[in-house]
UniProtKB/TrEMBL annotation:
InterPro entries, alphabetized: Peptide/Ni-bd, SBP_5, SBP_5_dom
Protein name (record): Peptide ABC transporter substrate-binding protein
Cross-referenced Gene3D superfamilies: Dipeptide-binding Protein, Domain 1 (3.90.76.10), Dipeptide-binding Protein, Domain 3 (3.10.105.10), Periplasmic binding protein-like II (3.40.190.10)
Subcellular location(s) per record: Cell envelope
CDD domains the UniProt entry points to: PBP2_OppA
Keyword Chaperone listed: no
Primary localization class, coarse: other
Signal peptide: 1-21
Protein keywords: Signal, Transport
Pfam family, one: SBP_bac_5
Amino acid sequence: MKLRRVLALGAVAAISALTLAACGNKSGASSHKGVLNLSTTAEMPGLDTSKVTDNSSLTALSNTQEGIYRIGKNSKPENALATKTTESKDGLHWTFNLRKNTKWSNGDKVTAKDFVYSWRRTNDPKTASQYAYLFDGVKNADAIQNKKADVKSLGVKAVGDYKLEVTLEKPIPYFKLLLGFPIFFPQDQKVVDKYGSKYGMSANKQVYNGPFKVEGWTGTNTKWKWVKNNSYWDKSAVKTNTINFQVVKEGNTALNLYNSGKIDRTQLQGSQVANYKNNKDYTYFQGSTSAYLELNEEKVPAFKNQKIRQALSLALDRKQLVNNVLEDGSKAATGLIPTKLTKNPKTGADFANDSKVADTTDHNLAKAKQLLKEGEKEAGISSLNFTLLADDTSGTKQNSEFLQSQFEKLPGVKVSLQNVPFKNRLTKSANGDFDAVITLWGADYNDPYTYSSLFTSDNSQNNGKWKNSEYDTLIQNSANKDANDKQKRYDDLVNAEKILTKDVGIVPLYWGTASGSGPMLQKSYVKGVIYNSAGVNFNYKNVEVK
């Protein structure tokens, strides 16, 4: 979930004796039935369906808006606005019969035309959607985004108010999963036109057709709520009246709020995990998250040198990072794509194991020093100074400091830290305003392509501007000529991953947890939350607080 569906890094936090004593005292029954209280580590950047890229905003849209499908248990697409789906034998033509008499929260009808408008707006280059690349495979989407075709030629058509026809250029194996992702949801053109550039920048400049509505979010504040949407077609299934959110960046603060009954779930960080893993409220949400370092090759010419990139990667002791700093169940990454996402169609082997390149992410300071010396000579420099951009949460700061200490073990390397609010980091990353940046990417769907496509030469998410023509070709083959051959497609993606890892297109850090996944405490009276490791993690439609 990308863009950055870049999530906030986990934190390291000490736990006081007072906090431990409070553990689990208020887990039996809720004193706020019908109200769920949650915290988040980052501000919410926006609610523009075409432009959101972060976890907080995507989660909000997924629970306050609705598309063709809603993603249910085990990442299964379930009918939402669709009542019937017809797919051609070649997988290129789809027809969706839509639910009648559904409404936006302002009273407007939700129709097939709202999907046509939304998809065209997202693909229109004027919108500058960073998630438009997900439409790759929809007829003319790529041509439209590259200004080679008119936006009206996009392969989506409304047949009356309640029938939507979609034409693809190639089969998309995960198409149904995409249709449950917020970037494919409808939009009310009347509302977009009314608010213009302010659309989705506050709660009252958006309309909602999902289970909840956002209230109290001004665009900059750190508290807001979702309230039950009485205009929702399936409102009888919504059992919770209000979900309150507050931004809490400090791990200890969040834990204290949980123990005092003021929030109903908290993510455990650092040494909190060991202290609470036997608590009755403890739960672990397996994530499909990859944390990595992007090196800006356009801003820092030295990063164009492969040996310098390799030196930085080999200087990192990833096991120390996950075991002594994160301490939250994360695993040292050996590449971009995490374990347990997908398997080899023929052998059943895990993708991460098939794509692993030996000796590329193992800690080897001596070799790192040798490569740095050779790389600096090739680049014509005698030292390396750069700034590491990251979020401003307490845990992210400590993680940044760890990376800084590791890199500065290399002779002549000096790293400065720049910790900024999450929203600012997203903007800086997208604008290329960084030397190096810590990024997390959560899978938008259960397929390696959700990661692999990020680092093609022309992908807007490729903020470091790494380029490799062979990598591009393999990714293109996986999505085109090999799309219907499961094994060939799988092999394309494995070989592409090997190129990215060997060439150090990114510096892998760890796999596993981030905001929205990993070790947590959750009150026992919270029922009915649906969690999926890929896509938008939490579906709150049927949540109950008893």
